[in-house]
Amino acid sequence: MGREELRRSSRRRGLLASSWQRLFGSTSSGGGGGSSGDADGAVQQQQGQRKFGRTLTAGSTAVTTLLEAGKLWDQGYSGKGIKVGVFDTGIREGHPHMRHIKERTNWTHQQSLSDGLGHGSFVAGVIGSQDTACPGFAPDVELYTFKVFTDDQVSYTSWFLDAFNYAIACKLHVINLSIGGPDFLDAPFVEKVWEVTSNGLIMISAIGNDGPLYGTLNNPADQPDVIGVGGIDNDDNIAAFSSRGMTTWELPAGTGRIKPDVMAYAKDVTGSKITAGCRSLSGTSVASPVVAGAVCLLASTLPEERRWVSRGSPQLLNPASMKQALVEGAVRLPQLNMHEQGNGRINLPASQAILAAYTPRASLIPPAMHLADCPYMWPHCKQPLYAHALPVVLNATVVNGMANTGHFQGAPVYEGLDEGGRMLHVTFKYSEVLWPWSGYLAVYVQVSPAAEAFSGNATGRITFTISSPGRLGAEGKGPQTSKVVVPLSAVIKPTPPREQRIVWDVLHSIKYPPGYVPRDNLDIKSDVLDWHGDHPYTNYHEAYDALRGAGFSVELLASPASCFDPANYGGYLVLDAEEEWYKEEVDALAAAVKEHGMNLVVFAEWYHEESLKQMKFFDDNTRSWWTPITGGANVPALNDLLAPHGITLGERIMQGSTSLGEHTLQVAYGANIAAFPAGGHLHVSHLTDVAGKGAGVPGNYAAFGVAGSGQGKVAVFGDTNCLDSSHNTGPCYDFLVELFQQLLQGKNAGLTPADMLQATPFKATGFTAPPQRRADVNFTQYSWVLQHPHACHMSAPCQFRQPVDCPAGNDWKQTHPKAAASSVASAASSSSSTGDAAEPPPVQEEDVSSSQVRKHQGTESPLPSQQQHKEQQQQQQGAEKPDEKAEVQQQLQPAAQQEDAKQEQPAGAEEEPEQEQQQQLSGGASVDSTNDGQQEQEPVKGSETPAALQPAATAVEEPAEQQQQAADKEVNKLQQLADDASMQQQQQEDSTKLSRGSSGSGSGGDGDELGHHAQHFASAQEQAQQGQRRAFISQAVTLATFICAAGVIGIVVLWSMRATGGIGRGKWGRRWGYGPVARRAPLDA
Questions:
Q1: Which of 129, 285, 468, 725 is flagged as catalytic?
Q2: Which of the residues 95, 97, 119, 645 is marked catalytic?
Q3: How confident is the model at residue 478 (pLDDT cuts 50, 70, 90)?
Q4: What are the phi and psi torsion angles at 130 (to 5°)?
Q5: 390 and 345 housed in the same domain
Q6: What is the DSSP string of 298-347?
Q7: What's the pLDDT tens digit per position in 396-437?
Q8: What are the DSSP E strand ranges found in 542-641?
Q9: What's the pTM?
Q10: For 764-786, what is each residue's pLDDT tens digit?
Q11: Residue 404's domain is classified under what CATH number?
Q12: Exposed / middle / buried, residue 75 (Cβ in 10 Å: 0-12, 13-18, 19+)
C-alpha cells in the first residue's frame, strides 16, 4: 500500500450504489408510519438494480437475539460510558428510541440537523435503540451524530475531513461508517482515516453491496486499520449483495489481503424509523452498525479504568485489540472461502472472553496458513505445490495491539518441521513500520528442485517478533515485544508435465483507481469503471476454477514475462491487458513461442480512439474532466506483443454472437483481427461494428484465430467478456479449457476446422494502419511498466530475482529436467517440440537509481538518470558559458603575450581548453565537441523503453532550487575573481613602487601597463557586483511571483470549494484549517 501513490482529490461518497460510487443503500419494507424519507434504497447487483427487502413477519428474530447480546445484558453491560459517532444522514432531535443523544452536528450545505432520508436514524437505532420492538446492542451508549450526507445522498470528502477532526476532538471511542467507495487512492480521505484510527478511535465500515462479484471491496472497509464488515442472512449464508475480496490495493505486482474482517447479519434487520416505530432494511450498511453496536457493548464489559489510555496501565481497547477480539472469537462459516467471509461471523460471548483475558500483543490474519484447507483457503487449496513452479504468494495482515506503531524485530524466519516442510523455500517482504496498528507480511513459497518427484505433506512454521514503544507513562518500561508463530502446511506433488502447465500474466492489467479505465462491457451504464481487479482471484475466478477443474496447473506471474523459464510451460495466458509491455518481454515471449514451443493465448478487448474521446465527461464530484486512459484493452500495446507473429488487432468494436465448434460465443464489445499470417486458422463471423461512422452496420469480421509461429502457436480472441465474472453476458469457460487442451495436448476440439485455414495473408477490408496510442493522455502516471525499470520481482522464481536469493546447496535450475523430453502437442500436426530447450537470456541487473523513467509517446520524453541529467546540464553549461576565470585572465594578459601564446600552440590546440573545461564540468568524462558540446547518451542496459514508446529526447528544465544554487555559485565565483584581481593589483603596485624606489626613475610603458591592468581589475569588480545585484533581483522577483501565484491559487481553490460546499462549514472549519467560518446550523445537543 504505497502511501506515496495516493492521489489528491475530492471524492463524493454515498449511501446507495450508483455509477462508479459504490454506495451502501438498503432496501426497506415493513409496516406502518414513516415518511417520504423512508423511501426504498437500491442495492446494486450483478444485473442492474435488484431489491432485497422483505416484509418483516411476526416470527422474525431480532439481530440482538441471534448474536446473544442478552448474555451480556444479563451481566449488567449496556454500552454505558462508550461514545459512538454515526457518520450518516443525521437524526431528529429527541428521537424516542435513543436514550443519550449527546450531540448532533451538520457538516453539509443543507440547513438541517435532522434526518430526512431515514438511513441515519436506522443505523443509530441498530447501535443503541432502547425500543423493545427493534432493540439496539448498546442502549446506554452516548450517541454523537455527524450529518455528512444531505437528504439527496450527496457528500464530499472535505465534509468527512472536518467531521473526522471534530470526532477526534470529542474523544470518541467508536465510529460507524455505513458508506464506501472504490477509490482507495482518495488521499485526503484515506490519510484522515489513518489519523483517526491512530488516535485510538475504533472505526467500523461496511464492505460494500457489489456482491456476488469478486474484487468489489469498498474503502475505507478495505484498510487494515479499519474493521470491515460483510453481510449474511439469518441462516448464516452469505448475502448475495455482500462484496467479496480480495483487496486490490496491492495489484498488479502483489496479491491482495483478506477482507472483510468479519461478517454480521445484514438481511431484514429491524431498526428505527425517522420519527418513531421500526422497519427492516438489508445491506452491508446494516451489518456495519450491527458490529458497531456489538463493539460498544463489548467495550463496556471492561472496567472503565482499563478501557482507554491510562497512565502506567495497559490500554486494552484500541482498533487493533478490538479487531483481535472480533476475528479470534468469530465463527468460521462452512462452504465459504476467506475472500468471502474473512474470519467468519462475530460471536459476542467468545469475544468478551478474549477481552477479559487480553494482554496487548501482535497477531496475524490469517493466524495459520494451511494451504490445503478447502474451501477456506481458496484459491491456494485448489492446487498443490510442486518443484520448478512460480512462487505461491500470500499476503497477511499484521495486527499490533501493543501500540499504534511498531516494527519487525529482525526478519521473519521459516522452519521446516518434517521432510516436506524442509523442501520449502520461504521468503518474505514486510512493512518497515507498522502504522497505524497494522502492517503486512507477504509470504513467497517455492519448492526445492530436489522435490520434483516428492509426494506428501509439508509442515513448517513462520516466526517473527513485533516491537513497539513502551506503554504511555509506564516508567522504567522498555519496548514491548510480541512473538508470533504462524503454522504453515501444504501438499507437495510431483512436478506436472509441461502440457499441463499454464502461466497466467497478472502484471499487465490496469484498473480504477488510479485512472479512468472504462468498463469492458459498454452496455453496463450503471457501472462505467473497470475496478474489479482483472485478476484470477477476483473477477476471473471462475475462469481460474475452470482451468484447475480440467487438470491444468495454473501459475500466476506478477513480474515481467521475461522472468520465468518458458521451457517448463505449455501455455501463456493474457486476458484484457491494459498495460504496456517492456521490449524485453516482447522479445522473451517471441523466443518462448518460436524457439521453445510455448503457446501464447491472448483475449483482447475493444479499442477505438474516437470513441474514447467521446467518452470524456466532467465529473461534478471532483470538478475535473475525466478522460479514458485506454480502451477495454490497450490494443496498441497488444499489437506490439503480437507483431513478431504477424498478427494485428484492429479498431472495430464488435458486438453479436459467433459459433465456433460446439460453442456459441457472445462478443460484447470486442476488437477485430485486422491482419493475420498465411497458414493460420482464422474465424470470420457476421457481427456488428458499433464504433465510428459506420456504427450499427453488420458485416463480416475476424474474431478468432490460431497461427503457427516457429515451434509454438498464438491464439487470439477479440473479447474477454465471456471469461469475466462481472457483468458476463454468456460464459465461455469451456471454450477456454478446450482451447488449451487443443494447443497443449493435441485434443481436437473442432476450433480450427479446415475451412478456416488461410492460404494467403489476411487483411481486413478498409484496414490501413493499426490503432494508435492516445497522444493526449499521459499514460505514464497510470502505468506500472512505464514507472518501473525492467526487473524481476519477488513473485518471480528465486533464481530470476535481482539479486538471486535461492538457498545455497540446492540445484535451483531454471529449466525442469523433464521439460526437454516433454511435448506440447500441435493442433495442426502431431509433432512435438524436440531438443533441449535453450535457457532464456539472463535478465540484466540494473541499478534503479540509474534507470530511465519512461514516458508515453506524445506526452513526455524519456528522462535520463539523475547522473546523466546532471552531466547533460553541465555539458550544456560548458558549451554555452566560457570559463569566467579564464576570460578575466585573458583580459589581464597583454595582447602581445596572448598573440605569442597562440603562436606557440601546436595545430589543433585551440580546442583543448574548451574540451578540458567540459571534462572538468562533467566530472572528467570526455565530450564530443562536434555536436554543439553535447554528449550522445548511451541507453541504460536493462531499462529499454517498451516497444513503440521511444520518443525523441527533449530538454529538461532545471528545478528552481538547482537554478538558485547555480546563480549563487556564479555570484561567489565572480566575487572570488574580483578579490584575486584586487590582490594581484596590490602586489604589482607594491612591486612597482619598490622598483621605482631603487632605480629612481620608471618606464612609461610600465605605468601604462599598470593602468591597463587596473582598468580590468575595476571591470572585474564591477562585473561581480552586477552579478550580485542581478542574483538578488532574480531572487526577489522569483519570491514575489511565487507569493502572488500561491495567493491567487489559494483564493480560487477556496472560492471553488466554497461554491460547491467543499470546505468545512461551521466553527470547526477555521479551527481545523479548512476555510473560514461559513453557513452552519447551530450545534445542538
A1: 285
A2: 119
A3: confident
A4: -100, 0
A5: no
A6: HHTTS-HHHHS-BTTB----SHHHHHHHHHHHPBPPTT--HHHHTT-B--
A7: 999 999 999 999 999 999 999 999 999 999 999 999 999 999
A8: 553-557, 571-575, 599-603, 617-619, 624-626
A9: 0.74
A10: 998 999 999 999 999 999 999 99
A11: 2.60.40
A12: exposed
The SS3 call for residue 722 is: helix
Asked whether residue 515 falls in the same domain as residue 464, the answer is: no
215: left (phi over 0), alpha (psi -120 to 50) or beta: left
Residues 511 and 625 in one domain: yes
| String of DSSP letters for 389-448 | -PPEEEEEEEEESS-S-BEESS--EEEE-STTGGGEEEEEEE-SSB-SSEEEEEEEEEE-
CB atoms within 10 A of CB 1072: 16
520 neighbors 605 (Cβ within 8 angstroms): yes
User: 932 or 95: whose pLDDT is higher?
Assistant: 95
Q: Are 345 and 232 in contact (CB under 8 A)?
A: yes
Give the separation between CA 631 and CA 633, rounded to whole angstroms. Answer: 5
**Using CA atoms, how far apart are residues 562 and 557, in angstroms rounded to an integer?**
10
Tell me, yes or no, whether 447 lies in a domain.
Answer: yes
For residue 248, give the nearest of 437, 440, 512, 576 by alpha carbon: 512
pLDDT mean over 357-384: 98
Instruction: Determine, yes or no, domain membership for 756.
Output: yes
Q: Are the beta carbons of 349 and 363 closer than 8 angstroms?
A: no
User: Same domain, yes or no, for 116 and 183?
Assistant: yes
Domains of the chain: total = 3
Same structural domain, 617 and 652? yes
Active-site residue, selected from the candidate residues 9, 10, 38, 88: 88
Q: Are 531 and 777 in contact (CB under 8 A)?
A: no
Residue 88 known to be catalytic: yes
Q: What is the CATH number of the domain that holds 101?
A: 3.40.50.200
Q: Looking up cell 518458458, which residue turns up?
A: 566
- Which pLDDT score, from 0 to 100, does residue 729 have? 86
* Residue 508 included in any domain: yes
Burial grade of 811 (CB within 10 A; 0-12, 13-18, 19 or more): exposed
- Report if residue 834 sits inside a domain: no
User: What are residue 108's phi and psi, to 5 degrees?
Assistant: -100, 180
Amino acid at 231: G
Among 778, 798, 818, give the residue marking a domain's end.
Answer: 798
Query: β-strands 269-272, 278-282: how paired?
Result: antiparallel
Identity (one letter) of the amino acid at 452? E
Whether residues 117 and 240 share a domain: the answer is: yes
**Is the domain of 556 the same as that of 488?**
no
| Residue 10 exposure: Cα atoms within 13 Å on the Cβ side | 22
Amino acid, single-letter form, for residue 643: A
Please give the residue range of the domain that contains residue 634: 498-798
Statement to judge: residues 487 and 516 lie in one domain: no
Pairing of strands 553-557, 648-649: unpaired
Burial of 974 (0-12, 13-18, 19+ CB in 10 A): buried
Q: How far from the centroid of its chain's Cα atoms is residue 784's Cα?
A: 9
Question: Final residue of a domain: which of 358, 388, 407?
Answer: 358
All three cell numbers of 618, joined, read 466532467
Provide the CATH number for the domain around residue 531: 3.40.50
